[in-house]
């Protein structure tokens, strides 16, 4: 749907990011409004469900995850978006650097991920544009990979198609502790020679673990 427009974003074109943030936000909103019948369950735990559907951006899947998290949206998103908290709790992420800070709520970051499935999926590197904005009574934090010439030879460069996290308070969030509904949309092209079955297993499990790690970090803090 946005392959031509969003998949060729170069670092030098981000000095005026307003057009990109609008397209990115609209794309995530379109995912968020998809009918339930378009999704198939990929994996389910006691308190998190992961669905998937064919992506319109590449030959892979768009994943949706959803679960409740005990805290308010501002604090939850602070732990998700680029910043001082993410690297401390996300077990998949091994390094993160903010390459450039743009308008308020916008930045470009480089991060690396650990190998998965006994290193069938080798460590990956991503260069992502990240944007956080208000959504209803909560927040939306979204992103997309951008072109960047410098690459570390020890990593395969992956690519994140439009992805993001919606976090809104529950109707009874005035209770203690506050509770929020966290819904994520992820479509990652890991690239390289990887069996599709391995990619599917890794993506669904990674999203389940993401909620577990996040809840544990928020509870500790």
TrEMBL record:
GO terms for biological process: cholesterol import; cholesterol transport involved in cholesterol storage; intracellular cholesterol transport. Residues 35-221 form the START domain. One of its GO terms (cellular component) is endoplasmic reticulum. SMART domains: START. It holds the Pfam family START. One of its GO terms (molecular function) is cholesterol binding. PANTHER family: STAR-RELATED LIPID TRANSFER PROTEIN 4. This is StAR related lipid transfer domain containing 4. It comes from Oncorhynchus kisutch. The gene is STARD4.
């Amino acid at each position: 749907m946005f392959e031509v427009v969003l998949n060729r974003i170069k670092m030098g074109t981000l000095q005026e990011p307003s057009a990109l943030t609008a397209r990115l936000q609209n794309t995530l909103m379109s995912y968020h409004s998809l009918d339930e019948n378009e999704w198939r369950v990929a994996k389910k735990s006691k308190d998190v469900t992961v669905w998937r559907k064919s992506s319109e951006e590449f030959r892979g899947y768009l994943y949706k995850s959803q679960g409740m998290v005990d805290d308010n949206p501002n604090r939850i998103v602070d732990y998700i978006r680029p910043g001082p908290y993410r690297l401390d709790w996300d077990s998949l992420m091994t390094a993160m650097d903010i390459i450039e800070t743009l308008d308020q709520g916008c930045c470009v970051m480089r991060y690396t991920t650990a190998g998965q499935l006994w290193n069938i999926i080798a460590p990956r590197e991503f260069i992502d544009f990240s944007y956080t904005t208000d959504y209803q009574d909560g927040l939306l934090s979204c992103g997309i990979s951008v072109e960047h010439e410098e690459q570390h030879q020890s990593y395969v460069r992956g690519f994140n198609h439009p992805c993001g996290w919606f976090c809104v308070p529950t109707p009874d969030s005035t209770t203690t502790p506050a509770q929020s509904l966290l819904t994520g949309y992820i479509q990652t092209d890991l690239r390289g020679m990887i069996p599709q079955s391995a990619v599917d297993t890794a993506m669904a499990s990674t999203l389940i673990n993401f909620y577990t790690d996040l809840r544990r970090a928020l509870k500790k803090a």
